[in-house]
Specification:
By secondary structure, this protein is mostly helical. The chain is built from 18 helices and no strands.
Length: 446
């Protein structure tokens, strides 16, 4: 007698079917000469809007941030440790409060949270342009960070949720959508520094006002295009989710490893400008190094994501990325005692940027793709926010420490060696036996 299928059997059949679909998609990706364009054309209008949102966010943001440390040190006259603290506070007020923005997005929906964040970002940039004292700079920087803590987790969680839906509909691995989201962000990071460098020829205030103007356009676009209610997104109570989250050890381990990556990435704005100033006598080459990083992501992110998806699970992808990031710091540490200057002196900095960017290409999509498999139903915004909040706390502590390393007169290679050790050590924190990205995560049915 044939027994009726059990729930376990049905679930196994569903997972087998999903895996088969993913296998077919990988074969098609190898044969398809225009995967990026085809992926974009198959996305729904909401995903396209959110990806373009990331592009615009980063244009406005990177028109100002890469030049903030120099402005604080020269125009405002802050000490190195204070500059590091201000940058750390900016990151913490953003990343550290993502959990608040994510919870609010779960409760009230994406639209109101994104719109509120845009309004606060506009106010923050205008304030920063006119700030000329330590306390006013701190206020403006905190407001800028909190604005991102509202809109970024709302956008990122919805992109992750839509990527899961896209995967389950047979569109392909969710990492492809998340990689495209990363590409859009880096395209903005590519354009932003050039815009900022051009405007800095007039004044830092002009750059800040231009950044505010970008967010005025973003605000207007979202008032017009962003839906009031997104189908399939259920609103949940703010209370209750945090208790389960803090007991989720695998998720917290992922947060700590991601924090090590973010601390390393934050050195683009703290330790790299100092190295470029030493080698070149000015920070003019900094814009070109940022452009190099962004151009690498724009051109290579999707091929790297497809390559990693065919060969590595999520844990191995993140581990490989963290090792590449560590290698970037080690390159500068090895070359620093020689004290090269001029074009030769910039080569280790360029190597650092390249290796850091390659590591980012592996870490970022894998971390974002992993979160839906670890999150509770209806709490994806909270979990995406918490991923950034824990890492923001790590950056706050680590940035002040890095600033101190630069001030106390240690041998020039030591700060770079210390920063190289952090991502290597964080690999041990990654959760074991990650669920396959093609599986049915607990957040998949949101």
């Amino acid at each position: 007698m044939t027994r009726p299928p059990t729930e376990e059997t049905k679930a196994a059949d569903r997972q087998t079917g999903t895996a088969t679909e993913a296998s077919r998609h990988r074969i098609w990706s190898r044969l398809n000469p225009l995967p990026r364009l085809r992926t974009w054309n198959r996305l729904n209008p909401l995903l396209r809007l959110l990806i373009l949102t990331q592009l615009a966010f980063n244009i406005g943001f990177y028109a100002v941030l890469p030049f903030l440390a120099e402005h604080l040190g020269t125009a405002i006259g802050m000490a190195g440790w204070m500059v590091g603290l201000v940058l750390g506070l900016r990151t913490f007020s953003q990343q550290g409060l993502f959990v608040v923005g994510g919870a609010l997005a779960d409760r009230y929906g994406v639209r109101p949270v994104v719109l509120a964040g845009c309004v606060l970002r506009i106010a923050g940039f205008v304030w920063l342009g006119y700030a000329d004292r330590t306390w006013t700079v701190l206020g403006a920087v905190l407001l800028i960070g909190f604005a991102a803590a509202l809109f970024s987790p709302a956008v990122e969680s919805e992109v992750a949720r839509q990527a899961v839906v896209w995967e389950e509909a047979g569109g392909g691995p969710r990492t492809n959508v998340l990689a495209l989201f990363t590409v859009a962000g880096q395209a903005g990071a590519f354009v932003g520094p050039f815009l900022g460098a051009l405007l800095l020829g007039v004044d830092f205030r002009v750059a800040c006002l231009a950044g505010a103007g970008v967010f005025v356009l973003v605000l207007a676009g979202h008032l017009w295009l962003l839906p009031q209610h997104i189908p399939g997104r259920q609103r949940v109570a703010v209370k209750g989710g945090a208790r389960v989250l803090v007991r989720n050890r695998r998720f917290l381990a992922l947060c700590c490893a991601y924090g090590a990556y973010l601390l390393a990435y934050n050195q683009l704005y703290l330790i790299l400008p100092d190295e470029v100033e030493r080698a070149a006598g000015s920070q003019a080459p900094l814009a070109w190094l940022f452009a190099l990083s962004s151009l690498l992501v724009v051109t290579a992110q999707l091929p790297v994501t497809r390559w990693a998806g065919d060969r590595l699970d999520l844990r191995r992808s993140m581990a490989a990325g963290l090792l590449l990031i560590a290698a970037g710091f080690a390159v500068v540490a090895a070359a620093r005692p020689a004290a090269w200057t001029g074009n030769a002196g910039l080569l280790p900095a360029a190597g650092f940027v390249v290796l850091l960017t390659l590591g980012q290409m592996l870490v970022l999509p894998a971390a974002r793709a992993w979160v839906p498999d670890l999150a509770e139903d209806g709490r994806l915004g909270l979990y995406m926010g918490a991923l950034s909040s824990v890492s923001g706390l790590i950056v706050l502590i680590g940035s002040a420490g890095t600033g101190s390393l630069l001030d106390v007169g240690l041998p020039p290679a030591v700060p770079w060696l210390v920063l190289a050790a952090i991502p290597v050590a964080s690999i041990a924190l990654l959760p074991r036996r990650p669920r396959p990205v093609t599986g049915q995560g607990p957040a998949a049915g949101q």
